[in-house]
Design goal:
This protein has 89 residues and is mainly β. It has no helices and five strands. It has a three-stranded antiparallel beta sheet with strand order 1-5-3, with no helix packed on it. A two-stranded antiparallel ribbon has the order 2-4. The protein is elongated and about 65 Å long. The termini are far apart.
């Protein structure tokens, strides 16, 4: 007997699982802009995911930060941007 370990990964039809840049356009200070992002998988395996910030920003939030992607389905994330000053985030 030879032990075999398998580490499945989310199989997606997109080039990237999440976009590296999201252009929110011109948002006035204090206004709220929301955008839906989708993580999809065409694999039959259910995956658990957790999103960790490389560097947090006070004007940006993402929900939910963790959960499950059921095999062959997708998960919708909500990215919220509420600028407090006139800078690029």
């Amino acid at each position: 007997m030879i032990p075999i370990h398998a580490y499945p990964v989310v199989n997606t039809t997109k080039d990237e699982l999440l976009p590296s840049i999201v252009d929110m356009g011109s948002v006035k200070i204090g206004e709220i802009f929301k955008r839906k992002l989708v993580i999809e998988s065409n694999s039959p395996v259910t995956f658990e995911y957790q999103i960790d910030w490389v560097k947090e920003h006070p004007d940006i939030s993402l929900t939910p930060m963790s959960g499950d992607i059921v095999g062959g389905q997708n998960v919708r994330l909500e990215l919220t941007y509420r600028p407090c000053d006139s800078t690029t985030a």
